[in-house]
Amino acid sequence: MKAVKLAKPGGLNNLTITQLAPRQPGRGEVLVRIRASSLNYHDYLVVQGAIPATDGRIPMSDGAGEVVEVGDDVHTLAKGDKVLSLFFPNWAGGPASPNDLRVVPGDSADGFACEYVTAPAQAFTRAPTGYSDAEAATLTCAGLTAWRALVTDGELRAGEVVLVQGTGGVSIFALQFAKAFGATVIATSSSDEKLARLQALGADHVINYKADPKWGQAAIDLTDGRGVDHVIEIGGGGTIGQSVAAARLGGHIAIIGVLAGYSMEMPVVAFIGKQLRVMGVSVGNRHEQQEMIRAINANGLRPVIDSHFPLDQIADAFRHQESGRHFGKICLDI
Ligand SMILES: NC(=O)c1ccc[n+]([C@@H]2O[C@H](COP(=O)([O-])OP(=O)(O)OC[C@H]3O[C@@H](n4cnc5c(N)ncnc54)[C@H](OP(=O)(O)O)[C@@H]3O)[C@@H](O)[C@H]2O)c1
């Protein structure tokens, strides 16, 4: 089978295509023909060597495809099932233990930039009905992170106001889930053209965060002085100050990303004064992924895919991500 390997110390020029033999599934395992993956910032950090991985690691946390063989004692999946991978295959549900988070495909274990993967059946869930493989592959990391932030941690309710930052995978899923729940969405972007596309997707209000660096106050103004109920915080150090400014008294900020910096000076008084609920998010578990997929099957939500690249052009796919021109998910067809 064809597989991509990342040589140490990483970098887009150290991704090479190689041939490997697929492994037959053992007891409790399935063999999956992987047909698609999708790019996340986390994968970018791995391939760039910023998250060190073992020499020869197969990158990519997200994978979707079809079960082609099942080992003994597999009762949850059958040959022909369309499946998608789990970001944390060991985390079944409930509060995470360190062991639940130990294995991350494409990081601490081989991932999905390859044609076949043999793994325990519980490392996959069924894909949403009618989804293409590429659509299914967008859910493992970005989709589930947005779901967990808003639904599990945020306990999102109809009528609440959600602020999403930028037009990457996580934020666009958050916009879509928020609208499906009957929330009002304020969306930000650095590009007016992307803001128009956010409105077409259902964003009720949009703000250009480059043109209006004090967008936290703009969000307060858009909510008649109340502030937003939930912030999908993907910028990190460079955006948290405005997120705190945007939040309502008692609001919830889901700390997800680091695109604008890894650290910040903590505005302690504002956190106290606003009685904020600030929650670090690390993707989610199998139970939440199944819950998200049931909701998708019920409401027909479709992921926003920016572009497709063949597996051989994985480095070009990452260069496209690096450019920041994308809107939604970049997928690999395998
Ligand atoms: N904690 C977790 O479990 C988890 C899971 C998934 C992702 N993440 C993190 O979340 C972040 C986003 O991931 P992703 O996969 O959605 O990335 P992505 O698809 O690559 O998102 C890139 C987009 O983010 C927007 N952006 C960049 N800087 C921004 C800023 N200062 N303010 C507002 N928006 C900004 C830009 O949108 P515009 O072009 O519209 O300006 C850019 O196009 C990353 O840091 C990633 O590591 C964390």
Explain briefly what this protein structure is.
The chain is an alpha/beta fold and 334 residues long.
Overview of the structural elements:
This protein is α/β, with parallel strands linked by helices and 334 residues long. It folds into two domains: 168 residues, Quinone Oxidoreductase, Chain A, domain 1 (Alpha-Beta Complex); 138 residues, Rossmann fold (3-Layer(aba) Sandwich). The chain contains ten helices and 15 strands. The strands form three sheets. Strands 3, 4, 5, 6, 7, 14 and 15 form a seven-stranded mixed beta sheet that branches. A six-stranded parallel beta sheet has the order 10-9-8-11-12-13, sandwiched between helices. The chain starts with a strand and ends with a strand. The mean pLDDT is 97. The site of NADP nicotinamide-adenine-dinucleotide phosphate has 33 residues, from helix 1, helix 3, helix 4 and strand 9.
Notable features of this structure?
about 325 residues; alpha/beta; Rossmann fold; 2 domains; 15 strands; binds NADP nicotinamide-adenine-dinucleotide phosphate
* Class by alpha and beta content: alpha/beta
So what's the overall shape? globular
What is the CATH architecture assignment of the largest domain?
Alpha-Beta Complex
Number of strands: 15
Largest pleated sheet: 7 strands, mixed
CATH class of the largest domain: Alpha Beta
Beta-strand percent range: 25-35%
Structural domains: how many: 2
Our count of helices gives: 10
Intertermini distance: 11 Å
Bound molecules: NADP nicotinamide-adenine-dinucleotide phosphate
Quick check: average pLDDT?
Answer: 97
